[in-house]
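Hey, resending since the last one bounced:
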Amino acid sequence: MFQRLSNSWELVKASARVLSADKELAVFPLISAGALLLVSAFFVVPLVLVGLDGRVTDSPLGVVAALLFYVATSFVIFFCNSALVGAALIRLRGGDPTVADGFRIASGKAGLILGYAVVVATVGVLLRAIQERAGLLGRIVTGLVGIAWNLATFLAVPVLVSEEVGPVEAVQRSASLLRRTWGEQVVGNFGVGTVTGLAGFALTVTFVPLVVLAAASTSTLLLGLTIGAYVFSLMALALASATLSGIYTAAVYRYAAEGVVGGGFEPAMVQGAFRPR
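The structure tokens again:
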């Protein structure tokens, strides 16, 4: 267990080295976040105005609205993730990607990405509908199903980017790779979240006393600057976490599908994750 956690930490550091070599990779999560804000405002405000901000699956209109919202947000996320993964794969294969390269790759797969977004949105709406109507046991079961679904689709985006398959085949292919390589993907992604979570905790511990001192100074400007610096630091941390996760996913997929690595990754880092059970 400790060896796997240590190995995952090395994978996180290798992802950081790739990001250091291609800092423009952080542009994709940034654009994704901005687009998600616009899409959410476009859907959420009208839903609240017509009273569908509660159990949206209680009415046919709510179900349709929820499905459209999930499709739109999923498409934005998967499109930008596809661009990030595509650019990261270029770097891992020895190239020097640009932001345009990433979006060119994603644009070439836009139809498939939309189809995959529909599949994911449909599953999401169904799980939400069940959760809103089920008791405690039903919520636990749907929660476990949701976790299993997230694991099964972990490599679906790089599969869509790299292979000539449709949305459903991408899920099946991702699940197949996961069955052969169970463990390291989950631990590695957990490692990215753990590192950024600890960093976020450290930021909070650092900034809370500063905010208190700024408030005690009675200076509105100083208080605003301190809070602004804290929020900016958290946003930068979230951006780094999303970028590292995309790079990590690309590296895991490349070794699982092609048996090779590249960039800042060493074969020994991932060999233990890709042996038949």
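The CA atoms of residues 52 and 230 lie 34 Å apart.

Sorry for the duplicate.
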